[in-house]
Write a structure and sequence with these properties.
The complex is a heterotrimer of chains A (290), B (301) and C (372). Chain A has 290 residues and is mainly alpha-helical. Chain A has 13 helices and no strands. In chain C, strands 6-7-8-3-9-10 form a 6-stranded mixed β-sheet, with helices on both faces. The chains are: A mainly alpha (290), B mainly alpha (301), C alpha+beta (372). The interface between A and B is large, with 95 and 90 residues.
Chain lengths: 290, 301, 372
């Protein structure tokens, strides 16, 4: 008995966590997936009803807006964050004075809840109080910056705030990557008479491709999960112009009382994330098996 | 190219190159400074606005320094601002967050340490699969668990309670804490465990006597990461709390979006700073550990 | 059971497989008290796996392991009465040297006084008294090695296991520690199983050498015997540095006389092999490999009564190390190596009179590569 116990202690120790993950993650995914195939409204119902919820979901204009927003937001958010993050990393890699302090400032948005910083952003972007009024007070009376209340442009304010929050993090990823590039390769290139910008473009940045991949994956995953950002900045408005799938799902679940729609939208989100994360995790974990 | 041409190279060229260099450096620092301004702006706006009076806010611009700094709005935000119908300020919710964060961080860190240890140095059949399953749990959009979690908390009698939120944060933090510890422990040589086994030490002796004493660096990373994540959480807080048990982020959102009465921007900003202060302080004091957690969580270790 | 008591370690039919890969195949082995067994072989030959199985750190797929006459195949490492020294030393980084050494005793519930006296004795023996309060991070490689041995010695086990303990040391320290280990072995009368990939270490330490290849023990015996009478071309090539020369040849039987025909540069030479003990006879025309150690290829005259042959060979490479010259000589389209006196003038490209002493040759079947 004690021999059996000794041999199985590692498994026994991991078991509760595994059970919790199986139940609270995988069990819940299955539950949500199943409920999305029923006619649940305020209360869940468990009689199977096929893909009616999905048909309804994709016919809902508000969901269309949310998906379109996710596409626009996700694309811009990822592209601009990476461009800015890479630029900052390269700038910071030039033996800068006070590098530590500057890095700290670039990265702090990631340490704060956007519910907190969104309070300021909302104000800065507010046409009556923020940038617009400041620039006008400087004498440029016709200056206009009212994206926050313009249904067509409001999603771009979400991009601005999102990039502000995440680009410092991308900078940190790239900086770590830059610092781990083999210094001897760079020395060899310098001895060969290649100038610094050329070294970055032809040697250093190409060697960072794994970092690009991680950054894209993490940012894509952040984009799909973005919730605080919209809630704090626009609350999904004006109207539902800045809804994302995450806020749509929340609205269906907790204010509209439509569990079926909530479950269906959550499942679509889940699938989107899985399509990105599963191949990534698979390729990351694979070499360790051998 | 001979030595002669090299040594007699015009001094002018060297200084011209020097000027270009200085100009480039200047440009570099200018760019960096502009970005510093961009990143610091919201925090700056929050800070100065929280110190101004409402009149001054209406009259002046958002970036101007306060004429006479006053902490009145801070006091209001702390003890009497209205979140919905409740007008006790941020204080009770701040303590809610503390009561939620402390046990959740402790439990998830401890479980992560044990899991990471078992999965890295006691590689039983299926250990890799279990790790992959836990890791994937970090990445799911939490919307997919909101509905069943709400029902489960109800069934457990934890609906709307801080205990329920602790459970939620522990469960969904496990993946990350396990990841951190596993990737850290993988770097500890296998032979250390072998030597300890031959010395007669068992699973827990090795963990408590050898692994935990080696763990302070990763414990710091994990605690800071979990603290930041849980303190900053909004989605779970807003979904699974009720009046009275809301964490500070939810209360802040309610204060800022409360539509009753006059909009007190200075109080909003003060409340936002108060709500963000704990994570901000941790970040300023131990930022390098936070960054380590951030990069460890996104790139495999 | 009683009959097995004289063997401190006995391994019977030990097999270890991972899925379809056989790491160890049907290993049989027995060593007596006081023996110093060295398991030597190239990486991947299974020697470390075998040691881990003995330690109980890996479970064999089949077979038995007896330590001190008791079946320990399924026993936990701590119950086997063994101690182990690792290549990386595996010192507990968070503990002082003293605690590293006494940790095992403490886990087993030894009193503080017992720990202290055992510690003092071992520390004195290994000359690490002055290091006891330091952390492993503040020790040099050689000092760590001593502490790791101290941790093993303090246990007074029936069997010591060493897993490449000197591989992380620089050349000079390695020689020093090698002598130290040998001295400890003699002083304590300990029984040791020692794994290394370094054949010099194996030769100088062992009372018994087990040369392993591909999961089996190719040859087991005292070092000199393994050196002089390798059972196949693998052992012959692995043991000894520089490596044994292999020359393809053919047996020619002329009446009672047995000769080995060797051809190079278009000519054929017949080398006398009457003195070689071909067990079970040999057929005329048999294809063989002739193995000659470099020290039997030299410029000096061997004593007249030894069978030998003299050839003029062209040096292609000369390495001097002070006490002799290691010379590669063109031999047909291959090369053989020899050892020449340092006084001898050897010029690259100029043929030099080379004597090959045939008294200590090995002859292998070219097909099976086994010793004839």
């Amino acid at each position: 008995m004690s021999g059996w116990l000794t041999r199985n202690i590692p498994k026994i120790v991991v078991a509760p966590s595994l059970a919790a993950v199986l139940f609270f993650v995988y069990g819940f995914i299955v539950w949500t997936g199943y409920v999305s195939l029923t006619r649940s409204r305020i209360m869940p119902r468990y009689d199977f009803d096929g893909f009616g919820q999905y048909v309804k979901l994709f016919r809902t204009p508000r969901w269309d807006v949310a998906m379109e927003n996710l596409f626009v937001f996700g694309l811009l958010f990822i592209a601009v964050s990476i461009a800015l993050g890479l630029l900052l990393a390269v700038l910071l890699d030039q033996r800068i004075r006070a590098e530590g302090a500057i890095r700290t400032i670039y990265l702090y948005p990631m340490a704060l809840s956007f519910i907190v910083t969104g309070t300021a952003w909302k104000w800065i972007l507010n046409p009556g109080l923020g940038i617009e009024s400041v620039v006008r007070s400087w004498g440029w009376e016709s200056f206009s910056f009212d994206w926050l209340v313009d249904p067509e442009m409001a999603i771009y304010t979400v991009v601005i705030a999102g990039v502000w929050q995440a680009s410092g993090f991308v900078m940190a990823l790239f900086l770590a990557g830059l610092r781990s590039v083999d210094q001897e390769v760079i020395k060899a290139a310098m001895v060969d008479g290649i100038n610094l910008p050329r070294i970055y473009v032809s040697i250093v940045i190409p060697s960072l491709s794994p970092v690009f991949l991680s950054a894209v994956i993490v940012l894509a995953h952040l984009a799909i999960k973005s919730f605080d950002l919209v809630i704090a900045l626009t609350g999904g408005g004006p109207g539902y112009a800045t809804d994302l799938p995450a806020t749509y799902m929340y609205a269906m679940a907790f204010s509209r009382g439509d569990l079926g729609q909530a479950a269906a939208s959550a499942t679509v989100m889940m699938m989107t994330v899985a399509a990105i994360i599963v191949p990534y995790l698979y390729s990351e974990l694979r070499p360790r098996h051998d | 190219m001979t030595d002669a041409t090299l040594t007699s190279a015009p001094a002018g060229r060297a200084t011209r190159r020097g000027i270009v260099r200085v100009a480039l450096r200047g440009l570099l620092y200018l760019l960096l400074a502009l970005f510093v301004a961009y990143y610091i702006l919201p925090l700056f706006v929050m800070a100065v606005t929280s110190l101004k009076s409402l009149d001054e806010i209406r009259a002046g611009s958002l970036m101007s320094l306060p004429d006479s700094a006053s902490l009145v709005s801070w006091a209001t935000a702390w003890s009497s601002a209205c979140a919905g119908i409740q007008c006790e300020g941020l204080q009770p919710f701040f303590w809610n967050s503390v009561k939620m964060v402390v046990p959740a961080v402790f439990l998830s860190t401890f479980l992560g340490a044990v899991n990471g240890y078992a999965l890295s140095h006691w590689r039983f059949r299926g250990a890799n699969l279990i790790f992959a399953l836990m890791l994937f749990g970090c990445f799911i959009p939490f919307q997919v668990v909101l509905l069943p979690m709400a029902r489960t908390l109800g069934l457990l009698g934890l609906a709307g309670s801080l205990g329920g939120l602790v459970l939620v944060h522990v469960v969904y933090g496990l993946g990350f804490t396990t990841l951190f510890f596993r990737n850290y422990y993988v770097t500890i040589p296998v032979e250390l465990v072998k030597a300890a086994k031959i010395d007669g030490a068992g699973f827990f002796t090795i963990f408590f006597r050898i692994f935990l004493p080696l763990s302070p660096p990763i414990i710091v990373v994990t605690v800071i990461w979990q603290f930041t994540q849980i303190w900053n959480d909004f989605l779970f807080g807003v979904s699974f709390s009720q009046a009275g048990t809301q964490p500070v982020t939810v209360a802040l959102n309610n204060i800022v979006n409360s539509t009753t009465g006059v909009k007190e921007y200075n109080v909003d900003m003060a409340a936002a700073i108060i709500a963000g202060l704990p994570t901000l302080i941790v970040y300023v004091l131990a930022g390098k550990y936070f960054i380590r957690g951030l990069t460890a969580g996104s790139v495999k270790g | 059971m009683a009959a097995q008591n004289d063997a401190v370690l006995k391994i019977e039919g030990l097999t270890k497989s991972f899925q379809n890969v056989h790491v160890l195949m049907n290993i049989d082995l027995a060593i007596e008290e006081g023996a110093f067994l060295v398991l030597v072989g190239p990486s991947g030959c299974g020697k470390s796996t075998l040691l881990n199985c003995v330690a109980g750190l890996e479970a064999p797929t089949s077979g038995r392991i007896l330590i001190g006459g008791r079946d320990m195949t399924d026993a936990a490492p701590k119950d086997r009465d063994i101690a182990m020294v690792f290549q990386s030393y595996a010192l507990y980084p968070n503990m002082s040297v003293a605690r590293n050494i006494t940790f095992g005793m403490k886990v087993r519930g030894a009193t503080r006084a017992e720990q202290r006296s055992a510690l003092e004795k071992v520390a004195h023996m290994l000359k690490i008294d002055h290091l006891l309060n330091r952390r492993p991070a503040h020790l040099s490689g050689g000092q760590r090695q001593r502490v790791a041995m101290g941790r093993a010695l303090v246990r007074q086990p029936k069997l010591f296991l060493f897993d490449e303990p000197l591989s992380n040391l620089d050349a000079k320290l390695r020689v020093e520690m090698r002598a130290e280990i040998k001295r400890l072995h003699r002083a304590l009368g300990a029984t040791i199983v020692y794994v290394t990939h370094d054949q010099t270490e194996a030769m100088s330490l062992a009372t018994e050498v087990a040369v392993m290849e591909g999961g089996v023990i190719a040859q087991l015996g005292p070092p000199q015997q393994v050196y002089d009478y390798p059972v196949n071309t693998f052992v012959a090539g692995f043991i000894g540095s520089p490596a044994m020369n292999f020359i393809n040849g053919r047996i020619s039987k002329d009446g009672g006389a047995i000769r080995i025909q060797v051809s190079f540069d278009g000519a054929t030479r017949e080398l006398p092999a009457d003195h070689y003990p071909f067990g079970g006879g040999i057929e005329d025309g048999a294809e063989v490999i002739l193995g000659i150690r470099p020290e039997y290829v030299s410029g000096s005259d061997p004593s007249a009564d030894r069978p030998n042959v003299a050839l003029d060979l062209v040096p292609t490479l000369v390495e001097t190390n002070g006490f002799d010259q290691h010379v590669n000589l063109a031999f047909g389209d291959s090369e053989i190596s020899g050892r020449f006196s340092p006084r001898e003038q050897i010029k690259l490209g100029t043929p030099v009179r080379t004597r090959i002493d045939l008294s200590q040759i090995s002859v292998f079947d070219r097909e099976t590569r086994q010793r004839l």
